[in-house]
Amino acid sequence: MRSPLTGGAGEDDPRRVEPAGDGRPVAVEERVVTKPARTSAAAAFALAFGVAAFVCVLIVILSPVGLVLGIIGLILGVLGLRAARRVGITGKGVAIVGLVLSALAIVISIAFAAGMVTVLNNDSAVERIEQEVDKMRDKLPSQIEVPQP
User: Fold this and answer.
1) Of 92, 84, 80, 87, which is closest to residue 45 (Cα–Cα)?
2) pTM for the whole thing?
3) End-to-end Cα distance, the chain
4) Which residues on neighbouring strands pair with residue 26, listed in sequence order?
5) Among 12, 29, 53, 96, which is least packed, fewest CB within 10 Å?
6) pLDDT in tens, the chain (149 residues)
7) 8 Å CB contact between 109 and 66
8) Are 73 and 53 in contact (CB under 8 A)?
9) Which helix H or strand E contains 39, and what residues bound it?
10) Distance (Å, rounded) from C-alpha 15 to C-alpha 148?
């Protein structure tokens, strides 16, 4: 019966046997240990902040919050891309998606703010809004009866 360390070990076999200086065979085992790649935390947070910023901007009233989250996501996305260059760290795609969503959130938020400033600085637009609000106020009933249980 052959021993797993001495039988049929070729030069390419990682379990090959080499003679020691005193004549005894010594087993030499070569192992390649690889660590699983880790996703960059900055890239993951960039994606989270980018999604949160984009959702906040789409909910128009939370647009300023979306702008702040978008800026944070943009910074984290750049840091995530830098971290993904290192050996053993992944997350380049995650960082890119976070960057894109953050940038979109920033652009939409700035466009919304610019539109609001433009409308509010236009006197005729403000007068039309006031007229519409007055019309809606006139349609409301003057007294509301609340039924008693």
Assistant:
1) 80
2) 0.64
3) 96
4) 18
5) 12
6) 444 544 454 555 555 555 556 666 666 666 776 778 788 999 999 999 999 999 999 998 999 999 999 999 999 999 999 999 988 889 999 999 999 999 999 999 999 999 988 888 888 888 999 999 999 988 888 887 888 88
7) yes
8) yes
9) strand 38-39
10) 90
Identify the helix (H) or strand (E) that includes residue 103.
Answer: helix 92-121
Position 20: which residue type?
A
**Contact indicator for 81, 39 with CB cutoff of 8 Å:** no
Q: How many CB atoms lie within 10 A of CB 16?
A: 16
Residues 65/113, Cβ–Cβ less than 8 Å: no
Q: At what angle do helices 41-58 and 92-121 cross, to 10 degrees?
A: 30
Give the list of residues 6+ apart from residue 68 with CB closer than 8 angstroms, or none.
53
Could you tell me the two tokens for 23? 């004549």
